[in-house]
Design brief:
Elements: E1 5-8, H1 14-26, E2 37-42, E3 48-55, E4 58-64, H2 73-87, E5 94-98, H3 102-106, E6 111-116, E7 120-124, H4 129-138, E8 146-151, H5 158-170, E9 173-178, H6 188-198, E10 205-209, H7 228-250, E11 252-258, H8 264-276, E12 283-287, E13 291-292, E14 295-296, H9 299-307, H10 320-325, H11 329-340
Parallel strand pairs: 4-5, 8-9, 8-11, 9-10, 11-12
Antiparallel strand pairs: 1-2, 2-3, 3-4, 5-7, 6-7, 13-14
């Protein structure tokens, strides 16, 4: 556009960040922390007219000054961010936005996958992206009663194994979805391998990657929602919309979750699942957590022990394969990340 320049905004650029936060505030959006890239559209006098950002393969914090709306700035910003993503090797892109804004992004080449009416819409830049994902899953459909589990396993613990065993013993097939976003202390490839090893004797368990179609706390944005509780509620409802389609193609009738007495976020998520899954014709089965030494076995507890320098103490909470992993080159890197982190347990 004539007279308009789009350029990166560094988080160390105080003037640029002040302009960005002021623009977001004017359009009712909070700044989203932990972004990979931020860009701004400026006029010849260096006034910020529009902004946008990236986190992983999502576009977010998209805003245009009210006085400049309708002149193509949003299209230019989305195009700029898409070019940045492609330069990083990300060609499959996603947008979370307020449900009322969805038509703007569908006009820019995005396709709505799911929505929570009046709250949030989830879109991607591939017309057949989600249908293609479902078709691939359908090849794994099995006869009989099927259940599902969704796990991050950061790291895999005996508690995870216990939950999988319960589901495997009560169903003909268990579809175990492993969160594939690489935003955990332990990389996805290592988490997936350790889960596979830990379940190798359970012949009715089938592992899947979630891809971008099961929504994690790491990428779901809260910046356009009222508060954190509203964000958790919206994320859960949107996630369950997507999961209902996944369950349909795989013939899943039950979703198993571990009881969550400590994490407020996961506890809220479980409550919403218990309320909403029956509306989709699915049962929510909540299994009490495994205990060891009078305490709940959890990945958070394992990470805290590692953080505190008590690696030997995780032996009673994890499999031998996981304990050995933390002595490997990749595992030692994960140990360093955990020990250097300020917070290693879930809120």
């Amino acid at each position: 556009m004539d007279g308009i320049t789009i350029s990166p905004i560094s988080t160390s650029d105080r003037r640029g960040m002040d302009q960005l936060k002021a623009l977001l505030d004017r359009v009712g959006i909070r700044f989203d922390n932990g972004l990979d890239y931020i860009a701004g559209a400026y006029d010849k006098d260096f006034h910020l007219l529009a902004a946008g950002a990236c986190l992983a393969n999502t576009l977010r914090c998209l805003a245009v000054d009210e006085a400049k709306q309708g002149v193509g700035l949003m299209a230019s910003m989305v195009s700029h961010l898409a070019e940045y993503q492609i330069s990083k090797g990300n060609t499959h892109l996603f947008i979370y936005t307020h449900a009322g804004k969805a038509p703007l992004f569908t006009s820019l080449g995005f396709y709505e996958i799911a929505r929570v009416d009046g709250i949030v819409s989830f879109l991607e830049n591939r017309r057949t992206g989600f249908p293609d994902y479902l078709r691939k899953l359908e090849a794994c459909r099995r006869e009989g009663v099927s259940a599902a589990l969704v796990m991050n396993c950061n790291p895999f613990t005996l508690g995870h194994r216990y939950l999988i065993e319960q589901a495997a013993g009560e169903n003909d097939t268990v579809h175990l979805f492993v969160v594939s976003e690489d935003v955990s202390f332990i990389p996805f490839a290592d988490r997936y391998r350790l889960i596979k090893e830990g379940c190798s004797d359970l012949e009715n368990v089938i592992l899947h990657q979630t891809g971008s179609y099961m929504i994690s706390n790491a990428v779901f944005p809260a910046y356009f929602l009222e508060d954190e509780d509203a964000a958790i509620d919206a994320q859960a409802r949107l996630d369950l919309q997507l999961f209902s389609h996944i369950a349909g193609v795989l013939g899943i009738s039950r979703r198993y979750v571990g009881e969550e007495p400590y994490s407020r976020v996961t506890g809220m998520y479980n409550r919403i699942m218990a309320e909403q899954l029956p509306a989709h014709g699915l049962a929510c089965v909540i299994i009490p957590r495994l205990e060891a030494g009078g305490q709940t076995v959890s990945a958070s507890r394992v990470r805290q022990l590692i953080h505190d320098g008590s690696l030997e103490a995780i032996k009673e909470l994890t499999s031998p394969e996981v304990y050995r992993y933390f002595s490997s080159e990749a595992g030692l890197a994960a140990v360093r990340r955990i020990r250097e982190a300020a917070q290693v347990t879930h809120y």
